[in-house]
Write a structure and sequence with these properties.
The chain is an alpha+beta fold. Helix content is 37%, strand content 22%. It is globular and about 60 Å long.
C-alpha cells in the first residue's frame, strides 16, 4: 500500500514540477496527465485523493498567489502581471483576483500585506508525513491576521520540543476548565494561544479561550493581545493526536525550504465552534508567525 502511494506521489510530483515552472503557459489536464503516463480520469482521481483539490483549482489559486506576490514585491504593470500568471488579459485577471482575495489588485498592492497566499505543494514521498498520520498532502498558505485579543484560562505546559512534553495531558484539562469558567458561545471559534517568546524548548504559556471583542467584565479569565502578524497556516484534517507529528514534519521538513523564518511570538490553534476533541477526525488550523525572507512562488517553488 505504501509503495503504491509513493508511485502515485512521484507521478503527481512530475506534474507539479512542470506546473510550478510554467504558470504563464496553458496547463491542460490531458497534457499534464500524459506527462506522467496516466489517463485523464486516473490522474484526476489520484491528484484529488492525495491533495483534496482538483488540479484546475490548485493551478488557479497558485497563479493568483503568484500575482499577489508580484503586486507586493515588484512595480510591474497590471497587464504584465496578468500575462506572467497565465491570464489572457487584465480584465479577466482583475475579476478572478477580486473573487479570490476580496479586493481589487491595486487595493491589495496598496495594503502591502501578503494575505491568502497558497504555498506551492510538494508530493515528494520522502519529505511528506507518513500516510498513517494524514492521507492528504498538508494544505499550507501564507496569511495575515490583524491585532486581536483572546480571553480564556492559561497554564504552563511543556511543548512539542521540550525534553519532557506534557501538553497531551494538560491541554484537554485546560479546555475543560475554560468551558466551565466561561460557557463559551457555540458560534465562535475556540483559539489556543501559545507563547513561544522564550523558545520552543522552554515551558510555554498556553491560553485556551475565544476572541474577546471587548475585555471581559467578569474575573477569572486571562487575556492576551496578539499583535498583527504574518503567519504560515497549516490546515489540518485528521485525528487530533496526530497534530504534533504534523507540526514536527512542518518545522523539520517544510519550513527550512520555504523562504519563511519562524518567529518566537504567539502560535495559534484555531478550532471550529463545537469542537469534539475525541472525534475520529477534526478540522482546525495551526498559525505560526513568520518573517518572509523571499517570495514563496515568484522564485523557484520550495523543494519540499
Amino acid at each position: 500500500m505504501e509503495s503504491n502511494r509513493r508511485i502515485q506521489l512521484h507521478k503527481i510530483q512530475q506534474v507539479l514540477d512542470h506546473v510550478h515552472l510554467n504558470l504563464d503557459k496553458p496547463l491542460a489536464v490531458p497534457a499534464l496527465a500524459q506527462r506522467c503516463g496516466l489517463s485523464r480520469w486516473q490522474f484526476n482521481r489520484i491528484f484529488t485523493h492525495q491533495t483534496g483539490l482538483s488540479l484546475g483549482r490548485y493551478v488557479r489559486e497558485l497563479r493568483l498567489s503568484q500575482a499577489a506576490e508580484m503586486l507586493l514585491f515588484t512595480s510591474q504593470r497590471m497587464i504584465d502581471i496578468a500575462l506572467a500568471c497565465g491570464f489572457s488579459c487584465d480584465i479577466s485577471f482583475s475579476r478572478s483576483f477580486k473573487q479570490h482575495f476580496g479586493c481589487a489588485p491595486n487595493k491589495y498592492r496598496q495594503r502591502g500585506l501578503p494575505c491568502l497566499l497558497k504555498a506551492p505543494m510538494s508530493c515528494h514521498p520522502d519529505l511528506l508525513p507518513p500516510e498513517s498520520l494524514r492521507s492528504r498532502v498538508p494544505d499550507i498558505r501564507l496569511d495575515y491576521r490583524p491585532t486581536f485579543t483572546v480571553a480564556g484560562v492559561a497554564a504552563q505546559v511543556n511543548g512539542l520540543f521540550s525534553s519532557a512534553p506534557d501538553f497531551h495531558e494538560k491541554l484537554p484539562l485546560l479546555w475543560q476548565q475554560f468551558s466551565k469558567a466561561s460557557s463559551p458561545d457555540s458560534e465562535h471559534s475556540r483559539i489556543g494561544v501559545i507563547d513561544v517568546g522564550g523558545g520552543s524548548n522552554e515551558p510555554l504559556t498556553y491560553l485556551a479561550g475565544t476572541e474577546a471583542l471587548e475585555l471581559p467584565k467578569t474575573g477569572g479569565l486571562n487575556c492576551i493581545t496578539v499583535p498583527g502578524q504574518n503567519y504560515v497556516v497549516i490546515a489540518f484534517h485528521g485525528p487530533l493526536l496526530s497534530l504534533p507529528d504534523i507540526l514536527k514534519w512542518f518545522f523539520q521538513a517544510w519550513l527550512p525550504n520555504s523562504g519563511c523564518e519562524a518567529l518566537h511570538a504567539y502560535d495559534l490553534e484555531i478550532y471550529p465552534p463545537g469542537l469534539t476533541p475525541s472525534a475520529p477526525e477534526v478540522s482546525m488550523e495551526y498559525w505560526i508567525p513568520v518573517k518572509l525572507s523571499r517570495p514563496l512562488i515568484s522564485w523557484d517553488a520550495p523543494n519540499c
